[in-house]
Amino acid sequence: xxxxxxxxxxxxxxxxxxxxxxxxxxxxxxxxxxxxxxxxxxxxxxxxxxxxxxxxxxxxxxxxxxxxxxxxxxxxxxxxxxxxxxxxxxxxxxxxxxxxxxxxxxxxxxxxxxxxxxxxxxxxxxxxxxxxxxxxxxxxxxxxxxxxxxxxxxxxxxxxxxxxxxxxxxxxxxxxxxxxxxxxxxxxxxxxxxxxxxxxxxxxxxxxxxxxxxxxxxxxxxxxxxxxxxxxxxxxxxxxxxxxxxxxxxxxxxxxxxxxxxxxxxxxxxxxxxxxxxxxxxxxxxxxxxxxxxxxxxxxxxxxxxxxxxxxxxxxxxxxxxxxxxxxxxxxxxxxxxxxxxxxxxxxxxxxxxxxxxxxxxxxxxxxxxxxxxxxxxxxxxxxxxxxxxxxxxxxxxxxxxxxxxxxxxxxxxxxxxxxxxxxxxxxxxxxxxxxxxxxxxxxxxxxxxxxxxxxxxxxxxxxxxxxxxxxxxxxxxxxxxxxxxxxxxxxxxxxxxxxxxxxxxxxxxxxxxxxx
Length: 517
Fold this sequence. Notes:
Blueprint (H helix, E strand, L loop, with lengths): L5 E8 L6 E6 L7 E4 L6 H14 L4 E5 L18 H11 L10 E5 L6 E2 L4 H13 L3 H17 L6 H13 L1 H8 L4 H16 L2 H4 L7 H4 L10 E5 L7 H18 L11 E6 L2 H4 L4 H13 L5 E7 L7 H4 L4 E4 L7 H11 L10 H7 L4 E5 L11 E5 L11 H10 L3 H4 L8 H35 L23 H10 L23
Parallel strand pairs: 3-9, 3-10, 4-7, 4-8, 5-6, 5-7, 8-9
Antiparallel strand pairs: 1-2, 1-12, 10-11, 11-12
Helix pairs in contact: 3-4, 3-10, 4-7, 5-7, 5-18, 14-15, 18-19
């Protein structure tokens, strides 16, 4: 599993021999990587053995389990498995001794069903990622930025979706006054955002936003035996909302960038992040977002974080990002169409040639569990491409039972911290409090007005010695009964907009893109 300096991936060679060990050097584990290949060619096994290798080296890992196949990392493999014989034969071919074992796994689930709930706050997600998540137009994104700015200035924490919804209601009620300061705020834009928030709720967004928010330290911990913890996000249900899936993973990546300190070039990564189904991140993404992904990928390695993109085709990843992926495992690509053939040629050109075989032909011919690999060597130079037989996993290949999953969840010790939702005082409650105070003040003013009118009628009906009636004036401004509760609340609260609370809500690097400095 581990060599003296890295992770043993498999046996490599130029032709049909596989006697040259192919290893991913730990000191270059933060130089990022790519695992690509068509469905059924062995990407999941490669992902599994890489996670095993990093964990054994004391490096925590995060990965998403799209098909429930990776949960087997929590259970040791067995000689009773139907592929045990094939595994032993492969180990003999590549000179590897297989020892079955389980790994320290923490299960997470956005829906809280197959793992501990994983949450963030609306404020931490920020307007850029939320706009991407809801597919907002530029005008709608502008209104969302105003909502975040006002929340900062007014001391209104945006923690969950109802906080953001309440903030947008307040903005809509006071749009005329706010437009003088922030530009036009169209009611149609506010309404469109509210409708998209309803769609997000239906996709499960309500469970994503709230507290307690994820503490990255819980993901980056080590097991008592010193192995890195493997964090598995149950994503089979989440994949039904692909935009939510991609945005959540991008948020998590940005949080790692924001919170971790600079470490330079460590002997091994501090954390490794596998971004499965990576094409979902880039499909239809605006250039501003792709640029941010490229920036994070370029800079996060100095934080000791390695990022591996897992996808079916290298063409799914933009060139600016692809150029930063130094460690590559390319499983078979199928060339059935003209575009497939172009993608195949492009994939082959990304490797340092091996004089013993043609890379393009090898990518078409490698079988299941076999790959074309290239890992960074001394001084970070890409290694010559090799045909590689990927080693079998030490953990169980395939899903686990519900009882095994629940046992792993119970053993993590995180249930008390994350399983119960906390709904503390935030924008919804504070705006509601202001509305109630404004309504109470309006009712008291109306009551006082009625009282003064009654006194005035009594004075007018009283006769004085001079024969004149006596009137009574008041300095209190008369309020119309037709004033709505929203108008009374708006008049009370708008006067407070000019003041700053001095307490801004912190967001991640992507969330703070439009935050005032």
